[in-house]
Amino acid sequence: MPDAVQASVLGRTLRTVNEAANWVSEVAFEHGVPREYELRKHTYAELKARGLGAQAAQHTIKKVCDAYTTLKANIRAGNLGREDSRRRRRAESKPVVFRPEAAQPYDDRCLSWQYGQRTVSVWTVDGRVKNVPFVCSADALRMLQAYRQGESDLVERDGVFYLVATCDVPEAEQYEPDGFIGIDLGIVNIATTSTGYQAAGRGLNRYRKRQLALRAKLQKKRTKSARRRLKARARKEARHAANTNHIISKTIVTEAERTGRGLSLEELKGIRNRVRLRKPQRVALHSWAFAQLGDFVVYKAKRAGVPLVLVDPAYTSQTCAECGHVDKRNRVDQGLFICRGCGVVAHADRNASHNIATRGESVWNAGRESRVPATP
Q: Angle 268-272-227 (CA atoms, 0-180°, nearest 5)?
């Protein structure tokens, strides 16, 4: 929460370091993106001449190297398309560019925290700026004091400055679970558990459908202001989905911790590459933030000491949780399951969650240490 003078200095600092980062990126591109030590020989003196401090210059060079490392990793993973795709050729044919307000890393030598006063002292191009107030929740402040480690990133978003700090929180000791709660992830129902909890996706899907229509209107305009609005709406939609996933994951983990049970979660990585859908269904699948929800459940479970296992989701929607009969016809429609073997009628997602819970318990029992006493 800087005042007007401090905000002006911080903004000028971010613009200066990112302008310098763009120059370093051009040098790196011309020299075939050398290693950080080699790139430092070509750029460090010039960065110092531009008014950057020693640590700021080092961090700027490292930031550029990290950006190219990420670009190469995305290319290798195929995230930018095939070798002959237009998107990949465009990414490989020019230097990496940094926005004027892009994040700049700070270590403890150029940024210090005063937790009691809730202020920070930060390096800028105009020298050290002290007593810059910051705000956060009481829980976040306790976490900062106890677990903050490494660098903090200064970033500006829509005229507001943020410090993004990394906290290394130790995992709680896992307890021996008294059974497992199965979690079935989906689009119509975001999450369904074997204990009866169901997070309907109707509201989120309706919100995304409305955002899709608004994006289509803005994309037709093809103006600079429309592109700016599109970026703002994309961030807003991402925040809304993340908040929903936080609420769902917290509810699931709290229930497991309260009842002393573990969590069994589907392993859904690569589903977008495996599943083939008609065009109207692709938007729903690719807007589905199942990976984020899974990540939220995993890290919240680790913090709470809740045992968690990942299981193969194959045929969980076609298998009867009562008799184990597997048949594609068991899944009558999206919400109805009727077993062709024993005739049981159940909600399809609820039935799948029970199968996931059973598989989770089997995986846990197979992987845990033997409790048999050693032979004398």
A: 120
Domains of the chain as residue ranges with CATH:
4-101 (no CATH), 106-167 (no CATH), 180-367 (3.30.420)
- The pTM (predicted TM-score) of the whole model is 0.75
Residue 252 burial by Cβ neighbours in a 10 Å radius (0-12, 13-18, 19+): buried
Structure tokens given for 117 = 């006063």
Q: What's 269's DSSP letter?
A: T
Radius of gyration from C-alpha coordinates of the chain: 26
Tokens of 299: 């890290």
Q: Is 309:366 a contact under the CB 8 Å cutoff?
A: no
Q: Kindly state the tokens that stand for 221.
A: 């305009």
Phi, psi (degrees; rounded to nearest 5) at 343 = 85, 5
**Token pair of 158 as six digits:** 């829509």
| pLDDT tens readout for residues 264-288 | 988 876 555 544 555 555 555 555 5
How far is CA 293 from each of CA 218, 268, 287, 299, rounded to the nearest angstrom?
29, 11, 13, 10
pLDDT (tens digit per residue) in 285-300 = 555 567 888 889 998 9
